Amino acid sequence: MSAIIGQRVTDSNAIESEKLPRAVQARPRFWFITHPHCWAFDGGEWLPVPSKMSLDPGCNGVTDGGGTDLAVAQLNRRGWQIVRPSDKRLGDFQWYVQEIPKQGRGRVYTSIFDEVSVVGSRVFWDHDDEGWRAFRRHLAESGICQPITRQVYELEISKQGSRVERLEGGSAAAPHNQVIGARLIRERERMAAMVAARPAHLDAAKAKPTRRRKVKAQRIEADIEASP
What we know:
The chain is α+β, with helices and mostly antiparallel strands and 228 residues long. The protein has helices spanning 69-77, 129-141, 150-173, 178-196, 200-207, and strands at residues 2-5, 30-34, 39-42, 45-48, 51-54, 81-83, 97-101, 107-111, 114-119, 122-127.
């Protein structure tokens, strides 16, 4: 029989469950992070695309003792926002990291959207795609991450437009190629859906009048020694 194992990590909990085989590679603990540039059109809506901040001691600014202040400061300077598992705004997604014990050294840390089953000596991984989308949607709706900006939206639309143009060129050069024709139809439909799902706050921001601030420039004069 298969055994689904894994448990959310809270401030204090003890894991007593079946262990993964020794051959499974250990995975360090992590936090999710988001960036204003990292958005994607997925499942008919615009959603942030979180990355992972590894909490492996001695790596990426994490101290040997597990201190994260330096690592967080470095990421914040580059525009990243930290999604701490303890953030109460996460609601049902709070403590989104699960810790899975394994045979031998180390442990395996994954998100609650990853499900692992052990069948005999084999390990099978599955991913909850719908739960992952719901988590990303919650990050945006709860204000944990910044909403998509007009510049990022238009950049993604431009990328999709370039894909459509390349396929149109390929279709014109090989009009009887059904594979290219089918891809062109799919990408055109995706382009139309991306435009139709344009976030409402982008139009509201565009309609709001903005005042330009005039910045006075001061000429900097340097004394230049005349040549003889």
